[in-house]
Design goal:
Blueprint: E1 7-13, H1 22-29, E2 34-42, H2 50-53, H3 56-59, E3 62-65, H4 75-89, E4 95-99, H5 106-114, E5 118-123, H6 129-134, E6 137-140, H7 146-149, E7 150-152, E8 159-161, H8 173-186, E9 193-194, H9 195-205, H10 219-225, E10 229-237, E11 240-247
Amino acid sequence: MSSEQKKLAVLIDADNSQPKIIEGLLDEIANYGVASVKRIYGDWTDTKLKGWKNILLEYGIHPMQQFAYTTGKNATDTAMIIDAMDLLYSDKFDGFCIVSSDSDFTRLASRLRESGLIVYGFGEKKTPKSFVSACDKFIFTENLRDDAISEIDNKNMKPKEVKENPKELSKEIRLLAILRNAVDDTSDFAGWSYLGSVGQKIANKIPEFDSRNYGFKKLVDLMESTNMFEFKKEDAGYKTKSVYVRCIRQRS
């Protein structure tokens, strides 16, 4: 099996992203491949982007200057799209990470996928469904902030869960159906399904699906909390284990 990592081009719309997501953003991207190119677009003469200026050097992100020539026209989006197409035709990348909550990038995401490249979208939960659906996977940036999973209580110095009371998953009928159907669709004759295949099946159907939306860091944690599935682990070589899941109702 090849250990070569995917080469990704990261394009950030500074006008529609927040600086405080950057560490979580790059950590998330590292799960999918190597950020070979990191560019951020905006009018850097605008004081509204001051927050970004202070962290670009630290994270090795190249700022791309785009003056706002006309009021009401987003020149930044146009510059990002042109650069994305140039990078596409260079044939040096396996995928793109588009960081924005703007629906203007819907067609770009579709065009990149038509060329056989994988597209990861990153944006706020207000991102239009059209852009979300155009990506192979879409991650909400609210889940990437340092305070998304926990925050520090200055008095007690203990992590404080953002969701003190986890959702009553038994009432999440659509979620339970999604999980169960993904397991059923990828299972073998005995009902067992490789967890990685389950996650990929869900992502193919619902790009914005993320266990963190329900207060869990990993898919396996979310599935365990439903009490609908059983799990087993098998050696996968080199001190690693593969996780398999089966619907409890299928137990023989």
